[in-house]
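Escalation from tier 1.

The customer reports that the assembly of two entities below gives different structure tokens on two consecutive runs. Tier 1 could not reproduce it. I'm attaching the input and our single run for tier 2 to review.
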Amino acid sequence: MANWIINNGFPAVMVVVWMTLNTFLFVWYYLYYDQDESFYYTRHLLGSALAWARAPAAVLNFNCMLILLPVCRNLLSLIRGSFVCCSRTMRKQLDQNLTFHKLVAYMIALMTAVHTVAHLLNLEWLNNSKLGLYDELSTALSRLEDERNETFLNPLQHIDADPQQRPTHFAFTSIAGLTGVLITLSLILIITSSMEVIRRSYFEVFWYTHHLFIVFFIGLVFHGYGRIVRSLQDEPLHNTTLCKDRPDDWGKVPECPIPQFAGKEPGTWKWVIGPMIIYVCERVLRFIRYMQAVQYRKIVMHPSKVLELQLRKKGFKMEVGQYVFLNCPSISQLEWHPFTMTSAPEEDFFSVHIRSAGDWTDKLIDVMQKLPEGEQGPKMGVDGPFGTASEDVFDYEVSMLVGAGIGVTPFASIMKSIWYKFKESDPKLRTRKIYFYWLCRETHAFEWFADLLQVLEKEMEERGLGDFLTYKLFLTGWDQGHTNQVIVHFDEDTDVVTGLKQKTHYGRPNWDKEFDQVRKENPASVVGTFLCGPAALAKVLEKKCAKYSDVDPRKTKFYFNKENF
Amino acid sequence: MGKIEWAMWANEQALAAGLILLTGGIVGVAGQFRGWEFASYAIAAGFFVCMLEYPRSKRAKGTSVERTGQYCFTVCVKAFGPVTRNYYVRAFLHAALCVPGGFMLATVLGCVCLGIASLIYLAAAVRGEHWEPILPRKDTRKPVAESIKSPPQNPPPRPPPEIRRKQAKDVEGAAYDNPIAVTDE
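Tier 1 run:
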């Protein structure tokens, strides 16, 4: 339990605070519209559906304000950097921006559903009131129109359509109705194209459809301009208790003047204008960064369709394990894709290793392959760098780095940086020990990384620092062919697959054994576990971290960090 | 957007549309709206669309992710053969199903969403996609390799009986030279 608090306490608190605010807003506005005197006549026409429509509207305002913020990656980077105290815990939680964005989106969807259903009921009842199907008071209230000295209460005015079509007619001709239909439709399209299946396989559909949020926000701001939710005004003073049973006397008796109604000023813009401006700034910043010139230092095609790009950009400063967004206008004008950098900050260039994983990456690899020797590549826009949990790796005395497949990329950057820092004996390096676990299905992917490990291996041996880095490579996709090879070469010094001194393990790691070993070798230490890989592995590691951690400061504590892509 | 299988998105959109149509229909009937007959139609149509769209198709390229418990639906949908396999049929079916939803407000949103799904299915059909059931894989055992024929007929070579008796009492004296080489040179 205590370990769960250490690792998940802060996001849990955030979610609880957010839900509390949602509940508070819902209940507050529900009670306001359900009990306030000025809505007495409105409630007479609409019943509790009025409150059921307005309460989710308030929650929607709040959540539409929040939804833009987690995706302002430059803003988040700024906040991350400014946390000097509690830096480790705070920075970890800001990684969960996408999870929060999705949570807020679900709430928006749910509230939209409640709001829409309530308004469907409202329109039906307003229609019936207008047709005089209810009691005398309803008919009298519905007859009030925007002429003579009257103001209307029932917004269904002067509709010459068939009674069944009146609500539809109103929905498509009033500001509130039309914007409502538009934004609900945009929301549905955004949600269906954001389902995991679509997002992971067809990123372009997801990305382009998601831009319907622009339609959503414009519609949202104008949604309330019709001022159709109306309340009884104070001037002239109309006493509802006295006058509700005598609608025929309104205007004829001094204590019951004709009731005047007015709608509230549209308020949504006050909620969303701030985040909209912040988001616009975010996009402008991305554009500025895109316009900055990027030169190619080197382009390397590695086996297994992995492309390495070494780039230079003026004023570009990075830290270990950070990622950048790349945009190539000749392939696609609007798409920005994230890639973790594989170079160390100590180098005078930055590099990315790009694997073939979809339309955009395939086209990029294709373009680079067709490029003649020594020529500059196509224009590339670079936004970033953005920080992730990997930055924290040097703050821990002991680090366990787990990379699965191409997920090893942030660790490539870290290991190179270690190499440089060690050469310069950088005092900022708090780390005394690193355990690196690389899980991979096939051997080809090893080759471009094997060079780096070979260099590190040599350097460490030369300086007598074999202890600093312990790495274990796990080949999870082995077959009979591999086994035969290993049997034949088993007594050789270097590994048959990688050419490294440390032998390749076959199959998946036994995490209990690994964590136990780390715990034994490092008592009374704080161990940071970093993973870049599939969610299933994250669950396993998270469990093991919790299992092997101890709140007792004299024993080992494991913290779990996950980079999400 | 070269490699996209439009049917995957059409499927998500159609399932969502089915649910929205169903919800709108329930509201229309429960609230006894004017035109509730259209609402009751929407409940039936929404339910039918959900049943039809729940099983995901097998992707032409890449791994297909099933929806939970979709196997029974897959079997039902597969039983209709070419009618459910072809996306032109689905596109026109959805277009036809959505029309009555336009006649009352509660079901209009479902109608529009289903219409959009129908258009995306049309795009999928034009690109030659079709629905394939995701069926559980039958693991075929690899055929036994050539070298493994029948088990050995003869027992392994053993020393003659008098040496075997000696082995029991005197290990050193029991040592002998094998007539056939047994070490790997």
